[in-house]
Amino acid sequence: MTRIALAYSGSPDTSHAIEWLADVHAAEVVTLTLDLGQGRRLEAVRDRALGMGASRAHVLDVYEEFAREYFLRALRADALLVEGRSLVGALSRPLLARKLVEIAEIEQTTTVAHACAASDARIATAVRALKPHFAVVAVPRAGRADQPARSRSAAEYPSEPAFVELAFERGSPVAINAIPMPLLDLVGSLDIIAAAHGVGRCHGLETPAATVLSAAHRAVEAQAADEHLSRRYADVIESGDWFTSEREALDANVARAQERVSGIARLKLFRGACEIVERRNLELRGRRSELLASSRLSR
Q: Domains (ranges, CATH) in the chain?
């Protein structure tokens, strides 16, 4: 019997994929679900996969890896948001591909599957970059449309704006309101504040923090911004060509440029809008104590 490792989120499309692979390919299906901050909620997703017929259901905690190796790289390259479109969801594709390959090898198979849209070739591109001999099955979607998120009215937002200061050191966010935080904690705190004021989207990986951090980073970067580099980086994300020498070369260029990007952005969050009200670019050369002191003095 063929064994197939399936990317599984618990959605109707991925649940349908378990049955489809078993019927059409006469396959034993093992699933992979990535924990990108969902935590205990994934216990139900794992149970659902087994209930739909998966022989085994793997759940991997990759939230920190995603934030450090994918989200932060794109943020520093100014490639999280392009022309109003979020690329945060697309950033998860190469990580999912890498973990699918790892699970497939553990399960002693060379066939992986996903239930993304037929036009989305990013997982297949990334898998074949890692393992050219692997087969990638794109399962036809069940045709169930996602329910659109309910829009909030202005009356549901706080009547007063929130002001947030974000400090960056060499292009990376290191503190919020003069309080140093690890990246995951900073993103979590910013999600809570921004979501309360209707900034950004709460849909999968597209969180309010991505919108605010992107705006703040661009403000601090100012004259050092390289639009051509950002566009090339976004193209790599959108095409799925993450595991390539081109992306590595772009990362090297970004790292050199970000050596000069340290400073503070102060933002106003109010009824869905994110506005830069102050920015200071500081030549600190890594002296974080001066960066935080500057943030405190401005408050």
A: 2-138 (3.40.50.620), 154-297 (3.90.1260.10)
